[in-house]
Amino acid sequence: xxxxxxxxYAPVGDVGAALMMIDSRLKAVYDSRTxxxxxxxxxxxxxxxxxxPTGVDAxxxxxxxxxxxxxxxLRAACEDHDKDVIEYLLPTLVATMRMMPKTFRPExxxxxxxxxxxxxTGLSPNLWRAQYGRWTDAEMNPLEAxxxxxxxxxxxxxxxxxxxxRLITEALSRSDQG
Length: 178
Prior knowledge:
- By secondary structure, the protein is mostly helical.
- It is about 70% helix and about 0% strand.
- α1 (about 15-30) packs across α6 (about 140-160) and α2 crosses α4 (about 110-120).
């Protein structure tokens, strides 16, 4: 039985722009800065402002696609070690979210956890979220940060700071060839 949240029904969105944004955040994290570089934040804000409503929706869909792809990789990695991805990943990610109250207000943590559970069970995160209405402004930073946390976890598992970005770039390259 097919679900209305099946990824085959989901818009892919602007994965390239989403990946650029996530990669930029990862590089800032790895630069050991305690705060976001104001110039970088201004650039990201200007980029988001230039998108317009359709572009913002495409970017949101792109971030959800990244979350789905990252969770697919993590699920496969966990299965290779006879672990359940939800049991392995969710408690530590939720604990991390709770330690970041400026980024993850308590009321958005269940939504971000729900996105991860949806993706880990093979559902489209953006279609799963759409059941509950439009994205709110309060969910924008947490959504981006959730994708960054997943990418950083993948990089840490692979012991390669660029692995998550390369994983997506290679998948995009393969899809362009096919």
